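re the bet — no i am not wrong, look at it urself. input seq straight from the record:
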Amino acid sequence: MARTVNVSSQQPKLKPWMVEAIRFATYLDAAANAIRKSRSGEKTSLKLLASGARLLEDCTFQDLQIEQVASDAGTAKGTFYIYFESKDIFLQDLARRYCQFEQQTLPVMNSQESTFLDTCRWVAWYERTFAANAGIIRCIVQMGETVETMRTLWHERNERVTARILNDLLTRLEPKSGDLHMVRLAVRTAGGMMDQSLFNRYRIQTGTGLQEKEDPEFLIVFHAILIYRAIVGENPPREVNPEMLDAIALIPR
């Protein structure tokens, strides 16, 4: 029997795999500043997109105003329409570029560490990147309710992330189930649970009402265990980090 532990008072120790997330707005600003030509159309376009990404951190896509975006980017409202036909087109371009940006920041597996710690690295990347860019993700998901382009973009993004996780992890371990279709289904299901947790936390959609009071870094380890179990079909080895695993009642002593 697993011993129940007060997870709020006994948090896991942090590890180097706790990757730092990059804000998409910061990334776009840096890309714009790297263009030396002052009258570059791409530079202006990137500045407008960076402003949109930044403003979405504090407002919904419905409340985002073109005047705000142009002002924040240091341009006139009319300049916005030189590059984007409408606010919807602007947001779809922003979302498309964000999904490409995510693919560029995917973590790299470390063959010197255990597969479980690599799983933790993946989950840490996903959850921290989500937290750093919740405004854009909120925009994609909420617009996806009515805009087919956004819905397709979100689904394709999820497929790519799942495929990459499976590809990387399956090179290092052999699931007990030989049915890769079921392994993929298990990962998508566990990932959906992780998404629901993040949706609740960052008010992406009306949630289940579950109030998660645990530290977000604890939840990274917790979700990594669920993902690992979904793929491997067993608990992670205790020798990885007994102190970390002892904080979670799912893991028998």
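see?? Residues 99 and 156 are 9 Å apart (CA to CA). told u. also The radius of gyration is 20 Å. so pay up
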